[in-house]
Design goal:
alpha/beta
Length: about 200
């Protein structure tokens, strides 16, 4: 069971049973360049991630995402607000950052303040040693797989790489397609210590 809360600029997903534990790991999500609409978004992917025990925040920007610190600041602000349902529930040491396409470029560039990052079908050359999972697709005709593989090759922190054969550039939209399960598994491993 997952709870969804919306503000004009952000969408939050988190486990409905927040009392099941004292603090939760969290993930900040960055959209691709085509942004966010009521029918074209990443909500099912973010909801799925939350169902595994994460507090997730994503932007509603139509195009370029806000700075990573904006969504992070909003999430940590809720964590510090005694009147908020998320008060004291976020573990600031267990925050991940992820994005798709343009959002992946921005996530890799802004991941220095996070415990780990995931870049789906896009990646900037690494600028820090944050452990990062790079995912691409052979059929991606928007961001060449070689560009993501280059970022992986240049990584100077722990890095993983996955390439999905049949997926195209829009596959991560809606429910995450073939990228959903590896994304969830990586965050469970890096933020929860679950190595299954």
């Amino acid at each position: 069971e997952v709870t969804r809360e919306d503000t004009p600029d952000l969408v939050y997903f988190f486990p409905a049973g927040l009392d099941a534990r004292s603090r939760w790991p969290s993930v900040v999500w960055f959209n691709g360049a085509s942004g966010y609409t009521d029918t074209w978004n990443y909500n099912d992917l973010l909801r799925s991630l939350a169902s595994w025990g994460f507090v997730v925040v994503g932007g509603k920007s139509a195009g370029r995402n806000p700075e990573a610190s904006d969504e992070r600041t909003a999430l940590l602000g809720r964590n510090d607000d005694a009147d908020d349902v998320l008060f004291g529930r976020i573990d600031p040491a267990q925050m991940g950052l992820a994005g798709h396409s343009l959002g992946a470029f921005q996530a890799t560039a802004g991941s220095g303040d996070y415990r780990t990052a995931v870049a789906i079908e896009g990646a900037s050359d690494p600028s820090n040693a944050t452990p990062t999972f790079y995912m691409t697709a052979v059929m991606d005709d928007v961001v060449p797989p070689a560009l993501v593989m280059r970022a992986y090759d240049l990584a100077f922190g722990p890095a993983c790489l996955a390439s999905h054969g049949p997926a195209n550039h829009d596959a991560p939209r809606l429910d995450g397609g073939p990228f959903r399960e590896p994304l969830v598994a990586f965050f469970l491993w890096r933020l929860e210590g679950d190595a299954r």
